[in-house]
């Protein structure tokens, strides 16, 4: 048996399975799974150990049966050491037992893969059994695990990094070996999609960080503005599904620097950069994206200062000080039911609202029987007016589904309705007119930006659904609010109804969850 073990040592690609208290059937099952995964099993019969040479990391599901620590010690000392004790072997081979809490975590070769827009890698040999709850310690990368050597906000090249603080490796090792956590990193990397960094350079940087830390880590890089980009939870959901984990949500946490902390002048040592604690220059966080990610996932949150430095300052620990901006979590519960007054005669309804405010959804929900006049569909103002006239002449009600942000744009529709009244009066010798009501979707700008992100994500998730639209450029929304004139009855409307965010009854559970999550 020793010659096979020695050969495996030299290859540095071996896993040892200790079959103490395992039946032949259990050993056969393990051997079959190793073989299926591409590994090679040698000398099983009458062996004290089973050696699986070149077994890939995908065997993580079965690592509760693996004596990695013993094998690594043999490799490190370049000699065959005594086998683990029967007591130790029993703890390692129990089919129901998870990995020993304080077993030294080990690393293997770094492997890269891609799923959709997610670029991810791992150097993990042993992964928790899928039937055991997993405690996840998740981290942002920049300004959390590392910072720039240059002192600049953004790295000037792929080598411009250093550990955020000297305590980082020690704390991560403690979370692994003492507390039994799985270490995961989620990092937005829009610079990759914008061409500011290369995939090769970014991967090289990640591999250098993993080599420096010498810890089992999983990195998820998120370059696109899609469901995977934090604070959205697509990458987290993918990870959990990929490994089939049941996550211990109460024990798991996320750590990041984008915490929504205010300017810290009232906290003289509350700085963001661990290397400059004594300066007392605490700047406002650039966003609350990391804290929002933790809230979306449903785990607790810590700042780097809190986790790595043990800071007790309220600026670092008190979540009540955080500026989250628009909070969508109660969006559906706070939304009010809305029902417009029915019209007894044909009428014109003019909608007023920002792009992405939900005008088309409002139109379909409350005025589904009206002829919808929309310039995105008809392309030109002339075609819109012609279609409107034709439907009014046919005795139909119409709804003008455009932004109609100022008095000038709304005046054209009011005058068209009045002209139609004259035509009807001549034709029917009556004075029955076409009333014009205005419905103003009175939504604050932050809510509109949230709805804009929501509809873009819905389009990405369900590209086949015609009702989902792409997002509107930010400058278009800003332009609407800059030039918006609130409508009044003085313009010629029979009434102006201010509509707050109305309750949406046609959302499925997944869409409702997305709508009430932090998206920006």
Automatic annotation (TrEMBL):
Residues 5-88 form the BRCT domain. Gene3D superfamilies: BRCT domain, HAD superfamily/HAD-like, P-loop containing nucleotide triphosphate hydrolases. One of its GO terms (biological process) is DNA repair. It comes from the Eukaryota. GO terms for molecular function: ATP-dependent polydeoxyribonucleotide 5'-hydroxyl-kinase activity; double-stranded DNA binding; polynucleotide 3'-phosphatase activity. Keywords: Kinase, Transferase. Pfam families: AAA_33, PNK3P. InterPro entries: BRCT_dom, BRCT_dom_sf, HAD-like_sf, HAD-SF_hydro_IIIA, HAD_sf, P-loop_NTPase, PNK3P, Polynucleotide_phosphatase. Transmembrane segments: none annotated. Signal peptide: none annotated. PROSITE patterns: BRCT. PANTHER family: BIFUNCTIONAL POLYNUCLEOTIDE PHOSPHATASE/KINASE, BIFUNCTIONAL POLYNUCLEOTIDE PHOSPHATASE_KINASE. This is Bifunctional polynucleotide phosphatase/kinase.
